[in-house]
């Protein structure tokens, strides 16, 4: 018979890469950065202002109708929301209109998304309002909106001179500043800081920070913030005059104060709120049910604002029933002013969560709608755009902005094609600023609160999705609940921190307690899979194949070892200890037997280490699910090879990716000049199993020959 030639498995040869040194890379980037030419200047300017690229290519006949319609509709929605969200931000209504106007203009010039609507956003307004109210409280102002004068509260830690008298004022940058002046000064300084942080994030390419804001965490955070917004606005629905709580537990304390003062409910505000909410909810439900038939959204908010303003004005609700109204809203623009730098050190920490949330919502929305409509956006340019939407307007008495989902969806559904629609929306706001703002004097605050609360329907409806979230992914559902409860019960800022930290803890926990499995071979094919998950798999005889589905690093190396010892059923140190005890016991028994036989010689009894037959002679570590290891992980591999080697069990590696192989080579895991690499590392589990069988057979053959 002819001898069958055994074909060795193919050997993969690594490509040699010429890696550039760090110094050469830095020199190249520096040279490219400082080089100046006309094409580069043109490219930089058009990249910084994308409008220069797309505006000359604007298809007037094809785009103008959709842009005009969506711009007008969003502008009509924007006006009542701009006035309403000022209640959340703690500033007079005129500043909401300023914010909406400037943000739309700047994003029109700098944004790369065709559909995103940038402006006031309920979550941003709430977070700004919390900072504003905190600083107003520390400055000694009465937070009750309807108070004519506050009681004097001195706070020596402010570094500002308090003017004793009525009305209360604070000296800011050498100028006496009353309640309205101080509130917008805080909001503008905070907005400037937010924009600076976002600009730094864009310059240093720190957009990766947003990856730590997982979708379940953001959803839970937004839902918790929505419930906080509802709580803060509830007092306006009832016409109860209580100041906004400062510090943690706003929701709990506010509801306690509401129920404690429920007997002071203003019936006029209560009835107005009930009517407005009924109409708004009915309008929203009709729009959702018949959205396919309606060409444009029904401007329910504007109708409510117009009708309520007329009713309040001609019914004289403020004088007769004490209903709280918006008050005088001036026309025109206030001269620009540099944000107060004396306030910024106190606002530096408060601006960080605002900056992160603002850019995260803007970038995610721009990418989502770009994907939906078949074009691309530049995330770093979006970060630049939203940073300047905060920096520049801060000089014009505006507060923090971001992309808003509801208005973006309206733009998309009403035929928006480009950011010309944002320019149209800004013109609608401009008309109100120049001509119609004073007509909102008699508009009741409870009507604005109704608009805010009804706009939260989408976020609050996510409560009913919790069971589905928990069924789909228990970890994601728990993250959602933790972020939501932390935001609701502690504070918005702490809710964000708790949500991010808890999300990261969940990821770390998963890596410390990953799924592990022993593998078996499918019949007739060289495929190895989990014996607990698949049927008809047979483990190779006397070979254990272990898979660890996580990176191997300092935090989970103990978990890796415990899992391996439990899976294979043999812990090398304990096995070695047991063998040594048996060896010692054998020596003692032999000595006693010699003495009993009367052997008087002092000859030393020599007994080798007691060998105990194990169920396996080789462990194959399937590293296909290990994306990376660190030096601790490499040391763990080395320890396994050494410890199992002492009990004559061989340890082999299979399916390692190139990054793991490189680190093992650098740490000389395979010996000097990688001499043991071919006998320790294999590209497939099957190759490792074949090598284990051949090696064991050769060892057995040598043992028999030596015995003969």
Automatic annotation (TrEMBL):
Entry's transmembrane regions: 63-85, 181-200, 220-238, 347-365, 385-406, 418-436, 480-505
Residues in STAS domain copies: 533-692
One cellular component term from this protein's GO annotations in UniProt: apical plasma membrane
Reaction equation(s) it catalyzes: oxalate(out) + 2 chloride(in) = oxalate(in) + 2 chloride(out); oxalate(in) + sulfate(out) = oxalate(out) + sulfate(in); bromide(in) + chloride(out) = bromide(out) + chloride(in); nitrate(in) + chloride(out) = nitrate(out) + chloride(in)
Pfam families: STAS, Sulfate_transp
Location (main, coarse): membrane
Record's subcellular location: Apical cell membrane
InterPro entries: S04_transporter_CS, SLC26A/SulP_dom, SLC26A/SulP_fam, STAS_dom, STAS_dom_sf
Membrane topology: Multi-pass membrane protein
Origin superkingdom: Eukaryota
One BP annotation, GO: sulfate transmembrane transport
KW Zinc-finger (keyword) present: no
Family: Belongs to the SLC26A/SulP transporter (TC 2.A.53) family.
Protein name (record): Sulfate transporter
Origin species: Pagothenia borchgrevinki (Bald rockcod)
């Amino acid at each position: 018979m002819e001898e069958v030639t055994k074909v060795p498995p193919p050997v993969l040869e690594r490509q040699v890469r010429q890696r550039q040194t760090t110094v050469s890379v830095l020199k190249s980037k520096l040279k490219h950065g400082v080089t100046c030419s006309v094409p580069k200047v043109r490219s930089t300017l058009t990249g910084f202002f994308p409008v220069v690229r797309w505006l000359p290519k604007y298809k007037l006949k094809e785009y103008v109708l959709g842009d005009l319609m969506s711009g007008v509709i969003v502008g009509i929605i924007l006006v009542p929301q701009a006035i309403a969200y000022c209640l959340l931000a703690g500033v007079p209504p005129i500043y909401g209109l300023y914010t909406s106007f400037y943000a739309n203009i700047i994003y029109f010039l700098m944004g790369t998304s065709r559909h995103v609507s940038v402006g006031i956003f309920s979550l941003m307004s709430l977070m700004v309002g919390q900072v504003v109210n905190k600083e107003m409280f520390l400055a000694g102002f009465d937070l009750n909106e309807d108070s004519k004068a506050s009681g004097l509260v001195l706070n020596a830690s402010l570094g500002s001179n308090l003017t004793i008298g009525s009305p209360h004022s604070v000296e800011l940058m050498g100028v006496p500043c009353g309640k309205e002046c101080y509130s917008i000064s805080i909001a503008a300084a905070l907005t400037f800081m937010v924009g600076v942080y976002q600009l730094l994030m864009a310059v240093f390419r720190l957009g990766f920070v947003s990856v730590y804001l997982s979708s379940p965490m953001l959803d839970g955070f937004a839902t918790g913030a929505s419930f906080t917004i509802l709580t803060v606005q509830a007092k306006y629905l009832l016409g109860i005059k209580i100041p906004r709580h400062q510090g943690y537990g706003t929701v709990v304390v506010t509801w306690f104060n509401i129920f404690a003062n429920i007997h002071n409910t203003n019936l006029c505000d209560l009835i107005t709120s009930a009517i407005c909410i009924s109409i708004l909810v009915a309008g929203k439900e009709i729009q959702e049910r018949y959205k396919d038939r309606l060409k444009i959204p029904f401007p329910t908010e504007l109708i409510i604002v117009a009708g309520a303003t007329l009713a309040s004005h001609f019914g004289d609700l403020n004088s007769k029933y004490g209903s709280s109204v918006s008050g005088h809203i001036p026309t025109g623009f206030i001269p620009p002013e540099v944000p107060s730098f004396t306030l910024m050190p106190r606002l530096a920490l408060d601006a960080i969560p605002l900056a992160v949330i603002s850019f995260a919502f803007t970038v995610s929305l721009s990418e989502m709608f770009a994907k939906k409509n078949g074009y691309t956006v530049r995330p770093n340019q979006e970060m630049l755009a939203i940073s300047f939407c905060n920096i520049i307007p801060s000089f014009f008495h505006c507060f923090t902005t971001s992309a808003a989902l509801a208005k973006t969806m309206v733009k998309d559904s009403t035929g928006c094609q480009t950011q010309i629609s944002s320019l149209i929306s800004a013109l609608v706001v401009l008309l109100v600023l120049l001509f119609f703002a004073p007509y909102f004097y008699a508009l009741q605050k409870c009507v604005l609160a109704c608009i805010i609360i009804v706009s939260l329907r989408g976020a609050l409806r996510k409560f009913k999705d919790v069971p589905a979230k928990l069924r789909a992914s228990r970890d994601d559902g728990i993250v959602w609940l933790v972020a939501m409860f932390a935001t609701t019960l502690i504070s918005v800022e702490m809710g964000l921190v708790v949500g991010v930290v808890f999300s990261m803890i969940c990821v770390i926990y998963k890596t410390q307690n990953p799924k592990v499995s022993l593998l078996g071979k499918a019949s007739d094919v060289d495929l190895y899979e989990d014996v607990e998950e698949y049927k008809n798999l047979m483990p190779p005889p006397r070979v254990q194949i272990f898979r660890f589905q996580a990176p191997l690093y300092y935090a989970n190396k103990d978990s890796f070892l415990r899992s391996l010892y439990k899976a294979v059923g043999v812990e090398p140190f304990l096995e070695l200890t047991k063998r040594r005890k048996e060896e010692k016991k054998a020596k003692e028994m032999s000595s006693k037997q010699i003495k009993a036989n009367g052997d008087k010689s002092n000859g030393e009894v020599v007994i080798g280490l007691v060998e105990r037959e194990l169920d396996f002679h080789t462990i194959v570590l399937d590293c296909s699910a290990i994306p990376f290891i660190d030096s601790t992980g490499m040391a763990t591999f080395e320890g396994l090879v050494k410890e199992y080697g002492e009990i004559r069990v061989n340890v082999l590696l299979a399916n390692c990716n190139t990054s793991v192989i490189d680190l093992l080579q650098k740490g000389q895991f395979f010996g000097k000049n990688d001499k043991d690499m071919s006998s320790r590392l294999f590209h497939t589990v099957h190759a490792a199993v074949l090598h284990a069988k051949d090696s064991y057979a050769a060892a057995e053959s040598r043992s028999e020959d030596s015995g003969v």
